[in-house]
Amino acid sequence: MTNTVGMTPALEAELGNTFGPHLEAVCARTAQALRACGYTGLLVHSGSLLTVFEDDRTYPFEAHAPYKVWVPACEVPDSFLWFEPGLRPRVIVHTPRDYWYKPAELPQGYWVRYFDVHGAADLAGARALLPHDLSHAAYLGDPAPEITAWGPAAVNPPALMRRLDYARAAKTPYELLCLRAANRLGARGHLAAARAFADGATEFEIELAFIDACGLREQELPYNPIIALNEGGAVLHYQVLNRTPPPALHSLLIDAGAEFAGYASDITRTYSRWDADFRALIGRLDALQQQLCGQVRPGVDWRSVQLEAHRLAAKLLREADLIRCSAEEAVDTGVTSVFLPHGIGHLLGLEVHDVGGFMASPEGGEIPRPDGHPYLRLTRILEEGFVVTMEPGIYFIPQLLEAARADKRRSSINWSRIEGLRKFGGIRIEDDLAVTTGGCENLTRDAFRAVQ
Ligand code: GLY
Ligand code: MN
Ligand code: MN
Fold this sequence. Notes:
This protein has helices spanning 9-37, 65-68, 123-128, 145-148, 158-167, 173-198, 203-214, 276-293, 302-319, 327-332, 336-339, 398-405, 415-421, 443-451; strands at 41-45, 80-83, 90-94, 116-120, 137-140, 154-155, 226-229, 251-256, 259-260, 263-264, 267-272, 359-361, 364-366, 387-390, 393-395, 426-428, 431-435, 440-442. A hairpin with a 2-residue loop joins strand 9 and strand 10 (263-264). 45% of the residues are buried. By secondary structure, it is an alpha+beta fold. The chain contains 14 helices and 18 strands. A six-stranded mixed β-sheet has the order 4-3-2-1-5-6. It has a three-stranded antiparallel β-sheet with strand order 7-8-11. Strands 14-17-18 form a three-stranded antiparallel β-sheet. The site of one manganese (II) ion has 4 residues, from loops.
C-alpha cells in the first residue's frame, strides 16, 4: 500500500480475506478480454515520473488505474504487472540503486502472496523478468519508446482497454472495503474542516485541518479539495484557497475526499454560519439528496436519476420561493439548470471520475446523455456493485443567473430572494453509494457515523 493510514488489524485481516477473490475476478475478466481481442498476455505499467519543464524535479506521481486495480502498492513509478491467463501474475517493482532518492523496497502485506514479486533496478532489469517474446501481448501504459521497443503486439489498444474499463464499474467486496475505508478517512477530514469553519478559519486553514485529520499528504488525496467560503461556493470546482478571512463569514462548501489503497472517496458538505434561512435551504437539499439515494438500486437508468433530480429540484425551488413559475415549467424551460447545472453523479473507484460511464457494452458503443444535460458523466443502467456519487446542488452562479435574466426565464425567478442568497454561493451535498441487491449502501453516511 502507498501508506497505511486508515489501516487497522481487523481491516487488514478482511482485506487479506477478500484480496484473493478480487484478484481472481480481475484475472478472469482480463483473460476474457485478452481472448476476445486476440492477445495472450498483458503488460501493465504503473506510470512514468514527469519532469517539470527545464528542471530535474518531478510532479507528484500518480499511478495508472489499470495498474492499481491489480497492485495496491501503487506509489512506485516504472513498475510493471505481467499477466498470462492461467499463470500467477508477476509484479516487477522498480528498485533502483540510488542515493538521491530513497529506493522503493519490495512490498509487504496482505496481497503479495498472490503474486511473484521481483525488484528491477532499471528498465533493462524489468525486461529481463518478462517473456522473451511479447509479440502476442498487449501493453497498457505510457508509450515510452524504451518500453514500446520491447515489441508488444499493441500499445493501449482501445478495444481491450474499453472492455477492462467497462468491468471496473462493478466493485468486488475487496474494493468495497477500500472505498469504505476511503470514506472513513474523508469523514474524519470533513469533521475537522467543519470544526475549523465554526472557529472562523480561512479556506487555507480549513484545508490544513482536512488533510491533517485525514493523515494524508495533499498529493495523496484523490483530487484537490474544493473549499469555498461564501460566494466561492458558486464555482463548481473552486480551486482558490484564500489565506485571508472574508470580511463576513456566511457559508462553507467543502468537496474533499481521501484515498485508501488507491481507491477514492468524493464527499461534499455545505454549512451555514449564522443564517437560519440558508441553513433551512441546506436541510431541504439534504432531504432531496436522501430521496434520490433512496431510488438507487440495480436496474435503474442513471439518466432517469438525473431527470428526477431536476423534477425534485424544481419542487424545492418552488417551495423555497426561489422561483415564480410552476415546478413543471421550471423543468421544461431550463430554469432548474440555472440552479443545478452539473451531473447528479458519476462512477467512483480508482479514479474519482471513474471510467466507462457512457459505455453501452464491453465491446463499445455509447449511451448518449439526455438532451440539455451536457455535464452528466454516467448514462448506464446501475448494477449491483457499482459505486456512484449522489451530488445534487443548488447554486447562485452569476453567469447563469445573468443568462436567465436576459432570456424568457426572467419572469420565472424570484430575483429579490436570489439577491439575498448570492452571498452564500451555493449548496452541494455529496455521498458515495454502493449499489446492493435491493438498494444501496451509503458509504459516506455510514463513515460519518463510524468516526463521529
Ligand atoms: N469532486 C468532484 C466531483 O464531485 O465530481
Ligand atoms: Mn463527485
Ligand atoms: Mn465531489
